[in-house]
Design a protein that fits this description.
Distance between the termini of chain A: 51 Å
Largest interface: A-B, 17 and 23 residues
Number of helices of chain B: 12
CATH superfamily of chain B: P-loop containing nucleotide triphosphate hydrolases
CATH topology of chain B: Rossmann fold
Radius of gyration of chain A: 20 Å
Number of strands of chain A: 2
Strand order of the largest sheet of chain A: 1-2
Low-confidence stretches of chain A: none
Structural class of chain B: alpha/beta
Mean pLDDT of chain B: 94
Distance between the termini of chain B: 60 Å
Oligomer: heterodimer
Strand content of chain A: 5-15%
CATH architecture of chain B: 3-Layer(aba) Sandwich
Low-confidence stretches of chain B: 255-260
Largest sheet of chain A: 2 strands, antiparallel
Structural class of chain A: alpha+beta
Number of helices of chain A: 4
Bound molecules: adenosine-5'-triphosphate, magnesium ion
Helix content of chain B: 40-55%
Order of helices and strands of chain B: EHEHHHEEHEHEHEHHEHHH
Strand order of the largest sheet of chain B: 3-4-2-5-1-6-7-8
Number of domains of chain A: 1
Shape of chain B: globular
Strand content of chain B: 15-25%
Shape of chain A: extended
Number of strands of chain B: 8
Chain lengths: 91, 269
């Protein structure tokens, strides 16, 4: 950062980074024709199905679109499972 | 004649398709190629004006497909550069006045006489776009380093990928880049745009006042000696002919003005 940047109070994160991140995300949705809203609906249903079998939290459930090789896009879910209650009791 | 047919397209309007078409046409004909430019923006004719040929139009592409005149009669030869010709758009009709089949016919006819045909595509993805790409086997995507035009470019890349005639992968021109903003990380750089869109780069054209002044006069910037954008477009023309022209160093900026003077002064601290 130059002195002028400090004087003018410029933030570390620049608008270019915002542009790039936002574009990469919106293009994932455009290319797969999965709007943000639909992904949210999917997330809710995934939660309902999975929580029938294991104990999970909606707040820690992540469902995202990600670029993988060959220009393909993957639906990536990260579903942390809560510790079983008896495990806690045994400790 | 080998008759290459290249469409210049973007999705988003106003990113520089017409400017690019006019300049590449002039540059390629200066390199000895016989070039025909087609203005496919029916109803919003502009390529004639950018080329300074607006006073010479008698017939247009709609007259040709409606057989009101011969193709030869509608073609305007550039007096400054006899290798260059323009087939103007009609101004008082709409995009449906020409069909993709008619576009292909016109191009096949032009291929007999010209080495390269460049089609200036209208903005959008509707009929005008479909007409403009129908005859093309090559495409140039023009984008600005800015979110909306990049998103639209990606859409166009997808559409070109799914056409049912043979087309080679599109090539990218990043137009109107402002190096002083790129340096400050306040504008996407060329590598960012390339990475996001995932297609090969044909060239980078700086945002340059000489484009505006040359367009004012109807003289493509590639005809000027001291235009940075003109030089970038001349380089692109040579790359289109298969030459391996290194990318211009735009970082050696012509950054003047009091603010940048102070910035430079303070830059080392
Ligand atoms: N590199 C540049 N530097 C400065 N100005 C530019 C540059 N490229 C284009 N322009 C200006 O941007 C405006 C739009 O350019 P142009 O008409 O070529 O875009 P277009 O994509 O053909 O637009 P449309 O979608 O309406 O057909 C014009 O005023 C032009 O002079
Ligand atoms: Mg135009």
């Amino acid at each position: 950062m130059s002195l002028l940047d400090i004087l003018f109070g410029k933030k570390e994160k620049t608008s270019k980074e915002d542009a790039k991140k936002r574009l990469q995300l919106v293009l994932l949705h455009d290319r797969t024709e999965i709007p943000f809203e639909k992904l949210d609906m999917m997330k809710k249903e995934i939660f309902e199905v999975v929580s029938k079998y294991v104990d999970i939290d909606m707040s820690s459930l992540e469902v995202n679109l990600e670029n993988i090789e060959d220009g393909k896009v993957a639906l990536v879910a990260n579903i942390p499972i809560n510790k079983r209650k008896n495990d806690n009791q045994n400790n | 004649m080998d008759g290459r047919v290249i469409v210049v397209t973007s999705g988003k309007g106003g990113v520089g398709k017409t400017t690019t078409t006019a300049n590449l046409g002039m540059a390629l004909s200066n390199l000895g190629k016989k070039v025909a430019l087609i203005d496919a923006d029916i109803g919003l004719r502009n390529l004639d004006l950018v080329l300074g040929l607006e006073n010479r139009i008698v017939y247009d592409i709609v007259d040709v497909v409606e057989e009101k005149c011969k193709l030869k009669q509608a073609l305007i030869k550039d007096k400054r550069q006899p290798n260059l010709a323009l087939l103007p758009a009609a101004q008082t009709r709409d995009k449906s006045a020409v069909t993709p089949e008619q576009m292909i016919e016109v191009c096949n006819e032009l291929k007999k006489e010209f080495d390269i045909i460049i089609i200036d595509c209208p903005a959008g993805i509707e009929q005008g776009f479909k007409n403009a790409i129908a005859a093309a086997t090559e495409s140039i995507i023009v984008t600005n380093p800015e979110v909306s035009s990049i998103r639209d470019a990606d859409r166009i890349i997808g559409l070109l990928d799914s056409v049912d005639h043979e087309m080679i992968p599109p090539k990218l021109i990043v137009n109107r880049i402002r190096m002083e903003m790129v340096k400050e990380n306040e504008m996407l750089n060329v590598d960012d745009v390339k990475e996001i869109l995932g297609i090969d780069l044909l060239g980078v054209v700086p945002d340059d006042e000489s484009i505006i002044t040359s367009t004012n006069k109807g003289i493509p910037a590639v005809m000027l000696d001291n235009s940075l954008a003109g030089q970038a477009l001349k380089d692109i023309a040579r790359r289109l002919l298969g030459e391996n022209v290194p990318f211009m160093d735009l970082t050696k900026d012509n950054n003047t003005g009091i603010f940048s003077f102070f910035k430079k002064l303070f830059a080392k601290s």
